[in-house]
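re: that chain from earlier
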Amino acid sequence: MPHDRKDLIINLSEACLPAFDNANEIVPKQCQAVFSGCVTGFTHRERRLFTNFEAARISFRRPAIVNGLVVPFSKPDLLSRCLLMKTEKIDDEKDQSDLLREF
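^ sequence. v structure.
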């Protein structure tokens, strides 16, 4: 998962359903603000390179998937927009044929 705000904005804006795997550390506060806006709508504006008055704009609104062993977010407004799911531990003693039968 990107820890730079601009890299996160680009990753979120380029995928229809961005997914971040193994997010096992707390995401920086400025990135949590981007995730908060991702679901309801987010626009990032900055000056275009080599210009004085032109602005570049990136706008998007979409869900994102983040998984990990810990909850990587701490801001209450972002947590209120999350769907937290706790999964059960997979029994190591089952072999593939048992899992397929249960499925």
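The chain has one domain: 5-102.
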